Amino acid sequence: MSEIGVMLGDTVNRLFGGMVTAQLLASAEDGVWPAALWKAVEEAGLTLPLVSEKRGGVGCSWLDARVVLHGAGQHMAPIPLAETILAGWLLDCAGIEPPMGPMSIACAAPDAALHLYRESDGWRLDGVCPRVPWGGAAQHVVVVAMAEGAVRVALLAQGDYQVTPEKNMAREPRDTLRFAHAPVAACDAAPGLPENAVELYGAMIRAVQIGGALERALVESVKYANDRVQFGKPIGKFQAVQQNLAMLADEVAACGAAGSAACAAVDKSLRSNNPADVWLRIASAKARAGEGAGKGASIAHQAHGAFGFTYEHVLHFATRRLWSWRAEFGTGDHWAAGLGRRVVEIGADNLWETLTATD
Questions:
Q1: Cβ neighbours, 10 Å, residue 274
Q2: Region of residue 75 (phi > 0: left; psi between -120 and 50: alpha; otherwise: beta)
Q3: What percent of the chain has pLDDT over 70?
Q4: Alpha-carbon gap, residue 135 to 94, rounded angstroms
Q5: Which domain holds residue 227?
Q6: Same domain, 121 and 209
């Protein structure tokens, strides 16, 4: 991590640590937009870390931006920060200057497609995108689609599409957006991006966020185990509890390493203009994060007992996100199945070299 990454990490942890409280999280679940939190995040420069300086961003690497994504997951920030970061990067890849304000990213259902086309008065978009994070709250939404023989990034403004409100298990907005001859605010080709860029990089940001939420579950579990006294001593002194917490720490470390490897692979591909191993690293990270989310949440709730399921305790804000995020932008099973097919394609003779490839 570079010096700027350290600075971003300090900023995000200090900001979220002071502003993201249980009361704020509960209020956001009731539909109240945390305007003060978003303003603070935007003023701190955390929304566009991956956007080049010439377009108003910080211009840092994915590995540096990872600390912001991790921090957003660790503090369960109830804002579309990760989505705005990815949306800004996608726009920057297409040479489009990102707007200020919250953004989201949208992709069509697996059995459907978005229709992006040009008319005399500009670009238009048709299609339906389900489960869009903060789709109704975002001031702009970014999509990636094939049009006129090229992969293109399109920016659409709030009000130019229909929103059907929905929520995930964590009570975060996951709205359905319907585009019917919707006007596109900006659109351009991005030759280095795959057509499934939203799903692919969306899986990566969720994998990193899961690592952050798992770390929060570990912190809360260790704290509770040290405070909760049973049979005359803290339950954290019992070997069985210690072993479970060590297993949870293993999940945190594994998911964190997988997320970092994916971000490093993207950075490497951007430097070399060769995205060969990006899919493999991201698929591995999301599959591992999905497994870790399930195991980690189970261990955390076991450590807390019934107390961890009460709404008054902060643990459920992390675990409900773990259960929700692991299914977004492709489930762990989806990515694991893809990994199996890719391993067969790579072949036994080349597998070790591919898995151990570094800068």
A1: 11
A2: alpha
A3: 97
A4: 22
A5: 197-355
A6: no
DSSP string for residues in 101-131: S-EEE----TT---EEEEETTEEEEEEEEEE
Tell me the per-residue pLDDT of 273-324, one tens digit each, with 9 for 90 and over: 766 679 999 999 999 999 999 999 999 999 988 777 677 789 999 999 999 9
Beta strand pairing call for 122-133 and 174-183: antiparallel
pTM: 0.95
Asked if 212 and 254 sit in the same domain, the reply is yes
DSSP 47-63: S-TTS-GGGTS----HH
Same domain flag for 228 and 350: yes
**Which residues fall within 8 angstroms of residue 55, CB to CB, at 6 or more apart?**
92, 96, 97, 98
With contact defined as beta carbons under 8 Å apart, do 279 and 262 qualify?
no
The answer to whether 279 and 301 are in contact (CB under 8 A) is no
Which of 137, 165, 194 is at the close of a domain?
A: 194
Residue 342 and residue 238 share a domain: yes
* Whether residue 224 is found in the same domain as residue 342: yes
- Render the burial of 134-148: b for 16+ CB within 10 Å, e for the rest: bbbbbebbbbbbebe
Q: Is residue 340 part of a domain?
A: yes
> How many other CB atoms are found less than 10 A from the CB of residue 263?
26
C-alpha–C-alpha distance, residues 262 and 281, integer Å = 5
Q: Of 87, 154, 83, nearest to 115 (Cα)?
A: 154
**Same domain, yes or no, for 331 and 219?**
yes
Using DSSP bridges, classify how beta strands 150-157 and 140-147 pair: parallel, antiparallel or unpaired: antiparallel
The CATH number of residue 129's host domain is: 2.40.110.10
CATH number of 22's domain: 1.10.540.10
